[in-house]
Amino acid sequence: MSYDGWILIVASLAGITCGITGCFLILRKLSMLADAISHTVLLGIVLAYIISQSMNGLYMLIGAAIVGLLTAFFVQVFYSSGIQEDASIGVVFTFLFAVGVILITLYAGDVHLDVEHALMGEITFVPWDLVTLGPLLELPKAFLMLSTVLLIDLIIIFLFYKELKITSFDPSMAVAIGIPVMLIHYLLMGMVSITTVASFDSVGAILVVAMLIAPGASAYLLTERLSVMLVLSALLGVAAAITGYYVASWQDVSIAGTMATMNGVIFALVFLFSPTKGLIAKKLHIRKLKTD
Predict the structure, then answer these.
(1) Do the beta carbons of residue 115 and residue 104 sit within 8 Å?
(2) Among candidate residues 162, 186, 174, 226, the one with its CA nearest the CA of residue 30
(3) How many CB atoms lie within 10 A of CB 165?
(4) How far is Cα 217 from Cα 22, in angstroms, rounded to an integer?
(5) What residues have CB less than 8 Å from 277, skipping those under 6 apart?
(6) CATH number for the domain whose boundaries are 3-213
(7) DSSP output for 87-110
(8) Residues contacting 82, CB < 8 A, separation 6+
(9) Phi and psi based region of residue 178 (left: phi greater than 0; alpha: psi -120 to 50; beta: remaining)
(10) For 137, phi and psi rounded to 5 degrees?
(11) CB within 8 A of 198, min separation 6: which ones?
């Protein structure tokens, strides 16, 4: 596989993984909680390194999942205590993220783990960070992590599709028919956590929010069916990743930043031209009603 080929594959995997996970965040109106988790998992990564003294991907995923769940738990506790949800998210994620930054400075200054890398990512290094499988096969670590996380996310969605769907659209009905709403909620937060940390090498913690939210938001404007929304979100995530890479190469600018920008461009186009929910379609519909 060529250098550019691996970058495109890893970027596409990040787009698919973030896209399908983000659909449920859009439906649950939890976009800002995704922003919080994408920052606080930095603490989980640092703690995993401090405890294990290893940058092994499995330890990173476990640490990120635990801190991501703690983030969702603390936000829920504060919100249930009467504090506004946005304030709860702001307090929790800034505190946990700041602790992660301090721990990186104190205990991880001599390893390949720094705030800039965690926040911004650097996909150009992905093809060189290889893991040996067997005597001959070498694959990028980011590819293996994203492939594993994508498989985990797909298995969870397949096994709990009905529960995720009902709790996303009508949580009151879910409670009435006996679905463990909070358990499904924390399961989804775990998915967001491991998806975020798996995407660090490609887009970083900050820009992963764009890949989690924008494809799902675009897909939401294009369909009324969840299954179709998942597929469209994955495709739009891939489209933004690939076009972002080529535009960045053409203009010699940040690849991660351009991928996020392309997500915004695609959303803007869908917002304008969606046949049912687009701004132009709505204007034409209103004009037609007035003329009738």
Answers:
(1) yes
(2) 186
(3) 16
(4) 8
(5) 221, 222
(6) 1.10.3470.10
(7) HHHHHHHHHHHHHHHHHHHHH-TT
(8) none
(9) left
(10) -85, 125
(11) 14, 17, 57, 61, 142, 145, 146, 148, 149
Residue recorded with tokens 């890949």:
211
What is the number of H-type helices and E-type strands within the chain?
Answer: 13, 2
Report residue 57 CA to chain centroid gap.
17
Closest alpha carbon to 232 in 44, 16, 5, 4: 16
Q: Which residue has the tokens 């701004």?
A: 279
DSSP state of 178: T
Query: In degrees, to the nearest 5, what angle opens at C-alpha 24 toward C-alphas 276 and 186?
Result: 165
Strand partners, 108: none
DSSP string for 235-255: HHHHHHHHHHHHHHHHHT--H
Reading the chain (292 residues) residue by residue, the pLDDT tens digits are 788 889 899 999 999 999 999 999 999 988 888 888 888 888 888 888 888 877 776 787 888 888 888 998 898 889 888 888 888 988 998 999 899 888 888 876 665 555 555 656 677 778 887 777 767 678 888 888 899 999 999 999 999 999 999 999 998 999 999 999 999 999 998 898 888 888 876 667 667 888 899 999 999 999 999 999 999 999 999 999 999 999 999 998 888 888 889 999 999 999 999 988 888 888 887 887 777 6
Q: What are the two backbone dihedrals, phi and then psi, of residue 281, each rounded to the nearest 5 degrees?
A: -60, -40
